[in-house]
Amino acid sequence: MLLTLILIGLYLSHSSKSSSSFPSSLMASRSLSHPEPNQVLFEESSCVRKVILNRPHKLNSLTYEMISQILRNLEVYEKDPMVKLLILKGQGKAFCAGGDVVGMVLSINEGHWSFGASFYKKQLTLDYLLATSTKPLVSLINGIVMGGGAGLSMNSMFRVVTENTVFAMPEGQIGFFPDVGASYFLSRLPGYFGEYLGLTGARLDGKEMLACGLATHFVLSKDLLLLENALSEVASSDASTISRVISGFSSKISLKKESAYRRLETINKCFSRRTVEEILSMLENEAANGDNKWIIQAISSMKSASPTSLKIFLKLIREGRTKELKDCLIQDYTIACHMFQRTFNPDFIEGSRAKLFEKGKQPKWEPSKLELVRDDFVNQYFEKVDDADWEYLQLPARPNLAKTWESKL
């Protein structure tokens, strides 16, 4: 159930010229839809500015208008010397479950792949500007965070999670790939834990996020408003000052016995292998050794995902270890545009049709098996898009502020 809920609000982009059929009622509802008011709220408090995602009924999934509004306000905040700190949070049960995939897929399916590219370009630009913001950014992540939500928050200076937080990057299940800079922030986790998260779409709770380094602080949800009020009084951009304020509300953690992070040695053994096929083979060998519930789940998830998506992500994260965030986002854009244009296969549209529109059907992937996805086929996604009007993603020159992703245990 949770994965289905996650996928409905997930951000992605994608797919096939061999057309997939979408219900006519959905196509009609799109043409009759009207922009929602107040999708993002902006609040001011002394030297602090708050950005509040306000689509709780849609798990705060990002729309083009939301991204545009945040970009406009972020530019104002960065130029204002009175602003010392930014806070980003979501209303309701989710921080942000990703981008508005349904609207994007319907547009792409009608032939407007350039809309997907335009949306995605703006989203990646926002992710980059938030990551390199001249003002310290505190992301209060209370609830679901995945896809585009991870892109907004995982590169912020302070990443505060709670007992309600659920993180995942299950894009491979709909024929996409863990994007929005995931090859940067997941590759910097201990060992090969990032490969495990990206290839399996495994969920983490807030304590596991702190343990592996995806989060910087763990605060109980009952104390979150108190923390927010305390941060609203901050009059400095000094990182150590802000960290002390957050630490004053932080709680110690202990991982559940069944946490996958407690199996890091086995994860490293399996997910350090060179190919997806070798990783799966190692997992199947380990499954015979007992304590294997999490391994069985990992195998099942990988076998149900798009084979092409798995191979694209493994190449991405391996290369991402030595790249800057900017370069990882540029590469994400190139791969996504190929998927939007449906240059090489229809997996994104097919996966979205089966998982999002027909709810729970198994997609028909092309190619259908890992061994049929050759290296030269994967490499094509990393090359320039063959379109006269297409350009590589252009991001402004800004200092890439150092972030730390390290275990807190």
From TrEMBL:
<protein>
    <recommendedName>
        <fullName>3-hydroxyisobutyryl-CoA hydrolase</fullName>
        <ecNumber>3.1.2.4</ecNumber>
    </recommendedName>
</protein>
<keyword id="KW-0378">Hydrolase</keyword>
<dbReference type="InterPro" id="IPR045004">
    <property type="entry name" value="ECH_dom"/>
</dbReference>
<comment type="pathway">
    <text>Amino-acid degradation; L-valine degradation.</text>
</comment>
<dbReference type="InterPro" id="IPR032259">
    <property type="entry name" value="HIBYL-CoA-H"/>
</dbReference>
<comment type="function">
    <text>Hydrolyzes 3-hydroxyisobutyryl-CoA (HIBYL-CoA), a saline catabolite. Has high activity toward isobutyryl-CoA. Could be an isobutyryl-CoA dehydrogenase that functions in valine catabolism.</text>
</comment>
<keyword id="KW-0732">Signal</keyword>
<dbReference type="Pfam" id="PF16113">
    <property type="entry name" value="ECH_2"/>
</dbReference>
<comment type="similarity">
    <text>Belongs to the enoyl-CoA hydratase/isomerase family.</text>
</comment>
<dbReference type="InterPro" id="IPR029045">
    <property type="entry name" value="ClpP/crotonase-like_dom_sf"/>
</dbReference>
<feature type="signal peptide">
    <location>
        <begin position="1"/>
        <end position="18"/>
    </location>
</feature>
<feature type="domain" description="Enoyl-CoA hydratase/isomerase">
    <location>
        <begin position="49"/>
        <end position="382"/>
    </location>
</feature>
